[in-house]
Amino acid sequence: MIEAHIHILPGIDDGSDSVETSQKMMEILRQQGVDRIIATPHFYAHREKDVETFLAKRDAAFDALGRPDNMRLGAEVRIEQGVSLLPGIEKLAFEGSDLILMEFPYAKFAPWMIEEVYNLADNHGLTPILAHVHRYFDFFTDDQINRVLAMSGVIFQANNEYLETRIEKKMIKGLLKDGYPLIFGSDAHNLDSRRPNWDRLVKKTKSVYIEEAMELLRKHLD
Fold first, then answer.
1. For 125-138, what is each residue's pLDDT tens digit?
2. How many angstroms separate the CA atoms of 28 and 34, rounded?
3. Which residue in 30, 32, 105, 179 could disulfide with 198, CB within 3.0 to 4.6 Å?
4. pTM of structure
5. 28-47: per-residue pLDDT in tens?
6. Domains in the chain, ordered, with CATH?
7. Region label for 154, one of left (φ > 0), alpha (ψ between -120 and 50) or beta (otherwise)
8. How far apart are CA 4 and CA 87, in angstroms?
9. Is there a contact between 183 and 155 (Cβ–Cβ < 8 Å)?
């Protein structure tokens, strides 16, 4: 399996706090059947000096971890006004692929959010992955969520814990049944409250859906 959303690099964001924690997270992933990892630290344009500064911090964290052979680098890019125009933003795509993980802000929906995703895709030839689409019910109306789900040329990502609430489970099960392009990820940050949880996904989700998600990822990564 491929982990495509995880905050496993040490000391770069609100994820792993140390090399030791990162190594333990990697071991848990291995035990759960994950053999490829895309590290996706948060990128908030309003907090960073520029993309290159972020990349330097990411590389330093990767170096501290020993640059594991089964890990590639990416980012989780917050959708902000103008983010698609940032110099070098395309460098935050998953290494060796056209995939870029993006998350909507936890704020009221605005049309510019969708425009930023499309602009990034069109300007740089990237395929956006929209992170944890089941999390936005508190901020978006049903109609606005449907507008997001109607976006073309994007891949949707569900966190493995989508099974924990009835409304999120219903949404993701519906997307799977209807054949939406969808992948999974633990979005793990630590060893306790937000630990790697592929064991839960494997136990509660049909294997055919997991394999379809992995095949979709492999088409872009290999």
1. 999 999 999 999 88
2. 9
3. 32
4. 0.97
5. 999 999 999 999 999 999 99
6. 2-221 (3.20.20.140)
7. beta
8. 24
9. yes
